[in-house]
Amino acid sequence: MPLSLIQNRKSETTMQCCPLCNATTVVPYHQDRRRDYYQCATCLLVFVPPEQHLNASDEKAEYDRHQNSPHDTGYRHFLGRLFTPLLAKLPAGANGLDFGAGPGPTLSLMFEEAGHPMAIYDVFYAPDTQVLMQTYAFITATEVLEHLAQPGKVLAQLIGQLKPGGYLGLMTKRVTTPAAFARWHYINDPTHVCFFSEATFKWWAEKHQLIVEFPGNDTVILQKH
């Protein structure tokens, strides 16, 4: 690579800002034919720079192709990886919010069937911002974090909506090593722009005084004091 391009690359790197913790010290992590991936030196989040994100209409077009349905037993089983460990922690009748419910809300129905009143929010399919003004005993966000352009802002908002002692249940596949990342099918989805590792979740939990546990290799439960 010509020196001028390397210098330009370094200049671009210094201008990137971590979308989780806002740190400006980021380094190149991976590059493929379509996108660049950076890693934050502070919280270790791996992310795609904003200028390489899809626009809103193209992003929604990708989601419109999803075929998830509450009648799909396989999908319910998939969601059970978060539903089962989180349900075991909840007191009877605890109210919840399913954030980023998508075009076929299912996890919310599973909790309702278990006796928990639920609200849903999705920026494209259920954009009722009134539900973002209320507090909840628990909030879920399954396969949501990887789509967020501003995960730090969104996560702080969700923690702010939790009642004391409340739970935030998350599902997203986690970064392990650069070598695994390079061959990871997860990065081929153009709507996936943020990639968390276990270390990133631990960093974020400590910063916000949260208890964190990992019931599965793609699930996280955070508890507010």
From TrEMBL:
SUPFAM superfamilies: S-adenosyl-L-methionine-dependent methyltransferases (SSF53335). Pfam families: Methyltransf_23. It comes from the Bacteria. Keywords: Methyltransferase, Transferase. InterPro entries: SAM-dependent_MTases_sf. One of its GO terms (molecular function) is methyltransferase activity. The keyword Transmembrane helix does not apply. The keyword Lipid biosynthesis does not apply. GO terms for biological process: methylation. This is Class I SAM-dependent methyltransferase.
